[in-house]
Prior knowledge:
Helix content of chain A: over 70%
Distance between the termini of chain B: 63 Å
Shape of chain B: globular
Structural class of chain B: alpha/beta
Order of helices and strands of chain A: HHHHHHHHHHH
Number of domains of chain A: 2
CATH superfamily of the largest domain in chain A: MetI-like
Strand order of the largest sheet of chain B: 6-7-8-3-9-10
Radius of gyration of chain B: 19 Å
Strand content of chain B: 15-25%
Shape of chain A: extended
Distance between the termini of chain A: 60 Å
Order of helices and strands of chain B: EEEHEEHEHHHHEHEHEEH
CATH class of the largest domain in chain A: Mainly Alpha
Number of helices of chain A: 11
Number of strands of chain A: 0
Oligomer: heterodimer
CATH topology of the largest domain in chain B: Rossmann fold
Amino acid sequence: MNRxxxxxxxxxxGVAVVASFVYLGIDLGELGDSGNLQRMAAYAQRFLSPDLxxxxxxxxxRGALETLAMSALxxxxxxxxxxxxxxxxxxxxxxxxxxxxxxxxxxxxxxxELVWAALMVLAAGLGPNAGTLALALHTTGVLGRLFAxxxxxxxxxxxxxxxxxxxxxxxxxxxxxxxxxxPQLLAYVLYRWENNIRMASVxxxxxxxxxxxxxxxxxxxxxxxxxxxxxxxxxLLVLAVDxxxxxxxxRWVKA
Amino acid sequence: xxxxxxxxxxxxxxxxxxxxxxxxxxxxxxQVAVIGPSGAGKSSLLNLLATALRPGSGEVQLxxxxxxxxxxxxxxxxxxxxxxxxxxxxxxPRQRVVTAVLAGKLGQWGFGKSLLNLLxxxxxxxxxxxxxxxxxxxxxFVQCQQLSGGQxxxxxxxxxxxxxxxxxxxxxxxxxxDPVLAEHTLSVLCRHAxxxxxxxxxxxxxxxxxxxxxxRVIGLRDGQILxxxxxxxxxxxxxxxxxxxxxxxxxxxxxTTLSVQIPRC
Lengths: 255, 265
């Protein structure tokens, strides 16, 4: 009985796969045609000769700098506002503010960066302004949530001890809670910065500035040579940021 | 009277009655040891005197002020004049010893000065002096997590010495130290109290230390005061009644560990 059920399951999966191909109209046979293979090779070929002229490289340098600035500024803004929202979200100021700030954080986080960017391009116009705002808004939601969890998990005794000596609440937070919390916050911020730099290079596709916008323009004009240079630059940027944040993690978080 | 409890009872959140109907008067400059089996309410009594616990009933008068009838601001000012040494000092693992000690004066310093001190220690000589009395003068710029339990306890004591309160409360201040160090540390505390006319109340699990260093001994059992006598009047039968059917054991110090999650994508 069990074996029969298994056979039926396998048959069902097979039928589903075939049905999907038919429904979507994908003809795998066409991929293997000799003419098509040549065309694919030619298409890839056009990407293999990146445009390394000084003028284009300069433009790419500016674009990379823009992407870097967008992601850094967006993450910094998000870290500040995230911490401001995380304090009420961790229940420091009573439950009404806690549920309100959690709602705000969830709403910010639920909308993806690309959607925020599309909205911000309409609101703030084309360019890096919109990209920075989009990154800041989404990342505020993510970091606020992570910060709030870190805050809840931090032992309260050191801060309580400061209160018991007559110190005020802000000082108790700075002296008792922050030293435990700071490495964790830094780790989260670095991680989101890594994410954001990748995101910042894509945001350009909806007109929010940076390398992505250059890539979008090049590909739209069928300038594969220019486009491939932009892709190379993106790769380099991401690798550089990866190693930079790895190094700073070693330096400040693990120590 | 510096410290005055009238018919004070304390019930913890989980329903255990820690103290029942305590009457206690301690005058300025007195040095009092609190002894008793574990679970007798020693820590509760000290936390009560430090205003860390609010009594369920009864009245708490500290330094002539009704602690729980004050406004929050006035109570914070009162708290700055009272120092509590915790059994396991709640110090952030990554904080430097110098910052942890200087934090003792947060109740007395202004807001700006306190924040500035976080970035750059403002009174290194003061911290050094407090630590040097406990043989820790060389550990000024070490992180708290690099210290042993006994060293951490001494940093906690140095913080309260630096705070220079009028009432010094100590909850098992030497529980993580070896006997020689415990002797030395207690005598430092008692000398400080004598020299500055500070009222000292310490709970101890080592009876010999209590009898050797303090002039007045309070025996606590089941949340009630069994005896409250000058040291000379405490004899063997009394101690046997106090610890009847109980084993003397130091409560273990829970290690404070810091775990950092490092997210990767």
